[in-house]
Design a protein that fits this description.
single chain, mainly beta, four-stranded antiparallel sheet, 11 strands, globular
Amino acid sequence: QVQLVESGGGLVQAGGSLRLSCVQSGRTLSRYTMGWFRQAPGKEREFVAIINWSGVSTSYADSVKGRFTISRDNGKNTVYLQMNSLEPEDTAVYYCAATDWGDPERPYYWGQGTQVTVSS
């Protein structure tokens, strides 16, 4: 059984920063591409960022490029999303996922999500 547990969400003012964490338990996912997705109220879930198994390669949605940074520590079974210069439009539930680099929007495993709210 694989579990992904996100943490680090909260309420922050526009321009502020948050760091999300996603801890994996159960079977190791160190060989998986890991990703972050988000879903805002009334909108479909969307891709935010992915990182390959070694951490060498990353990819970002245009809306977060230059502001968000994805990273991983396989020794700690943890993936991070550093979010800087946050905007009210970044308000959403953020989900961690284990996925495939070639088809990232069809993950194998999902976390339960953590709420990020950015006030103006």
